[in-house]
Specification:
The structure is a single chain. The protein is 38% helix and 19% strand. It is an alpha+beta fold. A five-stranded antiparallel β-sheet has the order 6-7-8-10-9. Strands 4-3-5 form a three-stranded antiparallel β-sheet. Strands 11-14-15 form a three-stranded antiparallel β-sheet. It is found in: Membrane.
């Protein structure tokens, strides 16, 4: 009986032992994590099998419909795996609460090991129609495409607006340029050196020019009438081969203290290119009467206008030839291409010297004669004898100045021929170029050397000048200017002083 009564007690102890062991194992497994079935999301790119989730993690079973091109319909694609115990894994497990445009769903579990192997979540099937490849991959590419098209259209519209406004600005000319002052105001705002506008303004002025008509052509290029800031300006457009002349003329104009009433007013210089061609521009004051050569052909002069022309020419040349000393002084400059075509007539009847493409400067500190390399030569008709026979002393700056004075004498002769004399029986010669009666229209070096150096010919002085005190005095000056010996020729300053006296005496007689 004792043995029979002990049997139930042993069985109770055995059951209690197994129950405790089960609880211990369950707790131990909870500490270690959970084993999940994996397929399609196995760690380390392993094939289908199992994965070990971290403590507190979940097993999941997910489904997503994909398009099968062979079958022509959507088919479910299942995947299994482990999710981490963090917030991200928890949120993924709640994905079934969110409606999806595509057929997909997910279910999580963490009760037992491999609990997800037999889980198959439900989903809403897609209609069996051929999908848009962009929509299958993602909705994002479609959004990116739409955004890109919008940006492109916006950029194109902005470009069209900018081009339109630039075109309108070019058509309207300088009226669209905001301005609170005139061209003269800008020149007055410069450093006072007489070298034109500040360089920053020079680099932008070419874009604001409105060219209107061509007013002259020469071997260097063309001269155009243009408008800038509401005022007329002259734009000298150089040929590509004349870059050296453009550079030299710009360099001379930008010399300190270059500005003078009888030197053509310099405004700016610029190079303007459009890709296929390049324009070298020189912007100066505009004088509507044109060159002295053109002016004398259509105009008969009296004593006052003749003296105004001659005195202003002498004043301009004297300013060039004179060196100004100081902290920012002006070097002496020789023109080397003085002729009636390079002298402009201003509205007040005075003249302005232009075209400094061949000019040379004398640097007194170093004794250097600054001659820019240039294949261009001066005008043969106006060349001095020492230039024609190649005896010019290029190491002496005075030699260049005396060659200028020879050319000045010829220009004075051109002007004096157009001065009327004789009162009631007025007389005046037609306009003519120097040596028009002894050399061809376009003489070469040999033609001029033979006439000037060998035959020692000079322009003929009409006899009527002997009976006119003004013309007689001017004829004596021009004869001394074109003397064969450079040392005998008058300086520009001497000619200026003599003409100033003639001008004053003539004014007194008129009064």
């Amino acid at each position: 009986m004792a043995e029979l009564s002990a049997t139930p007690g042993r069985r109770g102890c055995k059951y209690g032992l197994w129950l405790g062991l089960g609880v211990f194992v369950a707790r131990f497994l909870g500490v270690l994590g959970i084993t999940c079935y994996c397929e399609g999301h196995c760690p380390d790119d392993r094939q289908n099998g199992t994965c070990e989730g971290r403590p507190g993690g979940h097993c999941f079973s997910a489904v997503e419909e994909v398009w099968d091109a062979d079958l022509g319909e959507y088919v479910p694609e299942w995947s299994f795996g482990c999710l981490p115990p963090d917030e991200q894994g928890f949120m993924q497990c709640k994905g079934y609460l969110v409606p999806h445009l595509q057929g997909k769903n997910i279910i999580c579990c963490n009760k037992t090991a491999l609990c997800n192997k037999e889980l198959f979540p439900e989903y809403r099937p897609n209609p069996t129609t051929a999908p848009d490849p962009i929509a299958i991959a993602s909705g994002a590419p479609l959004i990116i495409l739409a955004a890109s098209l919008s940006v492109c259209l916006t950029v194109i519209l902005i470009a069209i607006v900018i081009i339109y406004h630039r075109y309108r600005r070019k058509e309207r000319g300088p009226c669209l340029v905001p301005s609170q002052g005139t061209l003269r105001d800008f020149i007055d705002q410069s450093s006072g050196s007489g070298s034109g506008l500040p360089l920053l303004v020079q680099r932008t002025i070419a874009k604001q020019l409105a060219l209107s008509q061509c007013v002259g052509k020469g071997r260097y290029g063309e001269v155009w009438l243009a408008r800038w800031r509401g005022e007329k300006v002259a734009v000298k457009v150089f040929f590509t081969l004349e870059e050296a002349s453009w550079f030299r003329e710009t360099e001379i104009y930008q010399t300190v203290l270059m500005r003078h009433d009888n030197i053509l007013g310099f405004i700016a210089a610029d190079i303007k290119g459009t890709g296929s061609w390049t324009q070298m521009l020189l912007i100066t004051d505009y004088h509507e009467r044109g060159s002295l050569h053109d002016y004398l052909q259509i105009t008969v002069l009296d004593h006052a206008s003749l003296l105004a022309i001659c005195l202003s020419i002498a004043s301009g040349i004297a300013h060039l030839h004179t060196e100004i000393f100081g902290t920012r002084g002006k070097p002496a400059i020789a023109h080397r291409d003085i002729k009636s075509r390079n002298i402009l007539v201003k509205r007040n009847g005075e003249c302005a010297i232009a075209d400094f493409g061949l000019a040379v400067r004398f640097i007194s500190e170093s004794g250097e004669i600054d001659i820019a390399p240039n294949t261009r030569v001066g005008t043969r008709r106006y060349m001095a004898p020492e230039v024609l026979d190649e005896s010019l002393n290029t190491s002496s700056f005075d030699a260049f100045k005396m060659a200028d004075m020879y050319s000045v004498g010829l220009v004075l002769w051109e002007a004096c021929r157009r001065c009327v004399t004789g009162g009631k029986n007025s007389m005046v010669e037609p306009y003519a170029l120097p040596y028009h009666d002894v050399v061809p229209n376009d003489p070469d070096f040999e033609d001029m050397r033979l006439a000037v150096c060998v035959k020692r010919l000079r322009p003929i002085i009409p006899t009527r000048w002997d009976n006119d005190p003004i013309l007689f005095a001017l004829s004596k000056l021009m004869v001394e200017c074109w003397h064969a010996n450079p040392a005998v020729r008058l300086t520009a300053l001497r000619v200026k002083k003599t003409m100033s006296k003639l001008h004053i005496d003539n004014a007194i007689k008129i009064v």
